[in-house]
């Protein structure tokens, strides 16, 4: 998960070896890292250059389209997808791109229409059926959603999200026993997902099953206590800026700034381990900051500094919106 280090290595290799810049493996690897780190501008430029070398590549066109979608440049993404449809009308991924764009733009019928084309072209695409069911769930078409989730689960019974959405559809239909059955399956597969516990609690309350509702509520309380935010990153950045530049602080200044907050973080090591390195929004963690180099830093940047001396991206990068401060 040390994407930042991998990015540095691959970027240096890419820049210093012009003859390798057409290497598909290098382009693919660097592109994946850029997208993982949400460096969309870099990813876009990389795939645009790849298309200069491989102008007929459907793969690089789709990579560029998906990067534009992730970067919320929907007009450009839609224009490219329409061009791709003209040349590859039978490519399922083209219609998945259409669906992603329309879903982001809240054009749900457009998303549904394209997902129906996708699953018609690729009948074994479990994710396609799941996405179709998800949009139908969002548009009060619960019965249709159930049918598509059944197909998705037949094709791939592993993803917890499939069961959770099936439970949501049954809950909408008033089939609470079925809803509870499926949300229990989701929890079994992903026991650390607090939203599934909340969903189960809500279903139990609708069933007037106080014991089950209390059971899931107690689990929710324990999980929320375990992941309770310890420090707001805005306070951290304000304090840090008084003692050192946020991006250019020296090692000594960094240690002083971090150590200033040591007493506020006595339980962070346990929290970090229990939460499997996942970072919630507006939260940051400092572990062993009184004895640098510290074991880890986790913040709104969703990155941490390890004792081995390198920055690593947090496995849960949903809130990774900023570049981490320079490592001490």
Number of helices, counting only DSSP H or I runs of 4 residues or more: 16
Cross-sheet strand order for the largest sheet: 1-2
Judged by helices, strands and strand pairing, the structural class is mainly alpha
Q: Please count the beta strands (DSSP E, at least 2 residues each).
A: 4
The termini sit apart by 20 Å
Rg from alpha-carbon coordinates: 23 Å
Q: Percent of residues in beta strands?
A: under 5%
Proportion of residues in helical segments: 55-70%
Let me know the average pLDDT: 78
Spell out the helices and strands N to C. Answer: HHHHHHHHHHHHHHHHEEEE
Biggest sheet record: 2 strands, antiparallel
Shape call: globular
As residue ranges, the low-confidence spans are 230-234, 242-328
Describe the overall structure:
The strands form two sheets. The chain has a two-stranded antiparallel sheet. The protein is built from 16 helices and four strands. The longest helix is centred in the middle third of the chain and has 17 residues, at 210-226. With 328 residues, the chain is mainly alpha-helical. The radius of gyration is 23 Å and the shape is globular. Strand 1 (285-287) and strand 2 (296-298) form a beta hairpin.
Q: Which descriptors would you attach to this protein?
A:
328 residues; mainly alpha; two-stranded antiparallel ribbon; 63% helix; disordered C terminus
Short description:
By secondary structure, this protein is mainly alpha-helical. Helix content is 63%, strand content 4%.
Walk me through the topology:
Blueprint: H1 3-16, H2 24-36, H3 40-53, H4 58-70, H5 74-87, H6 92-104, H7 108-121, H8 126-138, H9 142-155, H10 160-173, H11 176-189, H12 194-206, H13 210-226, H14 233-243, H15 251-259, H16 268-274, E1 285-287, E2 296-298, E3 303-305, E4 311-313
Antiparallel strand pairs: 1-2, 3-4
Helix pairs in contact: 1-2, 2-3, 3-4, 4-5, 4-6, 5-6, 6-7, 7-8, 8-9, 8-10, 9-10, 10-11, 11-12, 12-13
